[in-house]
Amino acid sequence: MNDNSPHKGMVYLIGAGPGDPGLITVRGRECIGLADVVVYDYLANDGLLAHAKPHAELIYAGKIGGAHNQEQWQINDLLVAKALAGKTVARLKGGDPFIFGRGGEECEALQSAGIPYEIVPGVTAAVGAAAYAGIPLTHRDVTTSVAFVTGHEHPDKDASDIDWERLSLGSGTIVFYMGVKNLPVITKSLMAHGRPPETPVALVRWGTRPEQEVLTGTLADIADAARTAGFRPPAVTIVGEVVRLRERLRWFDNRPLCGTGLLVTRAADQAGEFADMLAATGARVFECPTISIVPPESYAELDAGIDGLPSVAWVVLTSYNAVQSFFGRLHDRGLDSRALGHAKVCAVGPRTAAALAPFGIRPDLVPADYKAEGVVAAFRELNVAGQTVLFPRADRARELIPTELAAMGATVVAPVAYRNVLPDALPAGALAALEEGRIHCATFTSSSTVKNLAAMLGENRFLKLMEGVTIASIGPVTSATCRELGLEVHIEPAKYTLADLTDAIVGHFSR
User: Fold this and answer.
1) Using the 8-state DSSP alphabet, how is residue 365 labeled?
2) Separation of alpha carbons 277 and 281, rounded Å
3) Model pTM score
4) Domains in the chain and their CATH numbers?
5) Residues with active-site annotation
6) pLDDT tens digits for range 340-362
7) Which helix (H) or strand (E) covers residue 119, if one does?
8) What are the DSSP calls for 432-499, one per residue?
9) If we measure between CA atoms, which residue out of 342, 335, 293, 336 comes closest to residue 315?
C-alpha cells in the first residue's frame, strides 16, 4: 500500500471469487462494508452487494462477451475520481484481481494519482471452477504442474505470445481463461505442438454457481462438442489427465436438486434460512420477497397488552415475526424479557422457539401440530378458564386462536404487533426466471406469501406463470389458500417446518 494522505480516499481491489458468494474472503467482505462506492463487474456475484452499506453508491462496470459497459481507461479514471473526492471505494472483481483481472492496470492508475490502495486476493476461476467440477488441478499420481493461460490475448497483437510448444510438452494441467470462442484454435495448436489428441478436456461454465455446466471430451472432439451443445462463455477450459478424475470426484453438480430452479417466497426482511437449505441440495434458488413486515398503524393495543403483563398467564407467539415484533417493542419501551414476570410462553413450531433463545426464553409449550389448530388442541389439555392470554399477532392473522381460547373461558388480549404489506416490486431476476420457464418449483411458507404473489402479479398472470410449476406448501392452511387461488399443491410435508419441506422437495424431485 502506498501513502495514506488524509484528504484522499482509499481503494480496495477485491477478488470476489468465481461466483459462489460464500467464497469471498473475510477481508474482502469487510472491505465491501467499508466502502462509500462499490464498482463491480459482470463476474462478481451481485449477492455480495448485500454486504455494502445501505446508502453506498453501486456502479456496474462489467463486460459481457467483449461488450464493455465501460472501457478500462474509464474504470481507471472512475476509481481515481471517486478516491480524490475522499470516498472509500471497493473495486469488486470476479476471481482474483491479479490473475487476468486487469487489477495491475488499475493499480498503476491509482499509483500514478497518488491514491492509497489495498489488494484483497480472491479465489481465481481456475481453482474454484475446477474444484467445484471435481477436478484436482494437480495430483501426485498424475501431474505436479499447472499453467494458467489466457485464451483471449490482446486484440492488437500481430502474433500470439503463447509458446505453444513449451506449453504443449512442458506443462501438466493447462487452464485457459476466456477461451470458448477460440477453442478450435487452442485445441489445434496444442495438438500441432505435441499434445496427444486423446488428452481429456473439460469446459466449466459459471463455475461454483448453481447453474454450473460441465462438458467433457478430448482435444480432438471438444470444439465440435461445444459447438453442438451451444456451450457459451463465461467458462474455463481444463486440459490434462486430471480431467479423468471428475467422474469419481464430482460432488457439486450431482446433488439431488442440481439444475432445479426454485422460487422461494418469503418476507422481505427475513434471513434466507430456507434458501440456504435448498441451495445446499444443489438447487438454483430465486428469492422472491412477497411480504414486507412493518409496524402496526398504532402501538396503543400492543402497549396496553405489555402494560397488562403482570396479570398475564400465557403469552402465545406463533411466528418468528411475532417474536421479533413483540420483543422489539419491549426494547423500545426500555423493557426486556423480565417484563414477562410469571407468564408462561407458548411457541408455535421449532423456528419460533429458536427465535426466543436470544431473549433468554425457553418456551413452556410447543404444540405437536405447528399451526393454530395445534395451539387450540394443546390448550384444551390445560385449564385456562379465568386466565389472561396475550396473543401478539399479525394484522391478518386467523381468528381461530382467540375465538377458541375465549370459548375455554380465557380472557384473550390479541393486539396487532406487526402488519404484512406488499413489497414495492418483485425482484427482476425472480420475475425473469418465471417468465422464461426457469422455475421448476415454487415454495410457499404461509398463506400471505401465496396471496401476495398473486396480488403482485395479477390473478391471470399468476396462474399463467404457475402453469407446469411444481407447488410446494409448508402445511394444510397454506395449501388451502393455494387451492383457493387455483393452484394444485404437489408437495406438503407431514411436519410443517422448513427442514421437512426441504426434505419433501428433495424426495419429490428424486422420484
Assistant:
1) B
2) 7
3) 0.75
4) 10-122 (3.40.1010.10), 127-249 (3.30.950.10), 261-292+423-510 (3.40.50.10090), 300-414 (3.40.50.10090)
5) 41, 63
6) 999 999 999 888 999 999 999 99
7) strand 117-120
8) HHHHTT---EEEESSHHHHHHHHHHH-HHHHHHHTTT-EEEESSHHHHHHHHHTTPPP-B--SS-SHH
9) 342
